[in-house]
Amino acid sequence: MVWKKITIVYSICLFACAVIIFMPGASELKRLQNENRDIVVRVKMLEEENEALKEEITKLEKDPSYIEQKAREKLGILKKNEFIYKKSNVKNN
């Protein structure tokens, strides 16, 4: 009977020690899993952005009309006999 009680107490102490030892490791594991998930999401976003940039490079290298479109948008380049109309915000009283 005494040995049974000693075994139970010893088992409880052993279990408590295991919990105390491994609990910080479990929380660290959870933190690292969350960090890993965030990094995987970031990598996926960067891969998509990289793919879009590769497509942009291909268009800029091979498509003259795309280059023209970008020049018109960014530099305001006009063709001969083209005009830009700007709307005025002046109010007439």
Automatic annotation (TrEMBL):
Pfam family name, one: DivIC
Example of a GO cellular component annotation carried by this entry: cell septum
Keywords from the UniProt entry: Cell cycle, Cell division, Cell membrane, Coiled coil, Membrane, Transmembrane, Transmembrane helix
Coiled coil location: 29-63
BP GO terms, sorted: FtsZ-dependent cytokinesis
Transmembrane residue ranges: 6-27
Domain of life: Bacteria
Protein known as: Septum formation initiator
UniProt organism field: Candidatus Omnitrophus magneticus
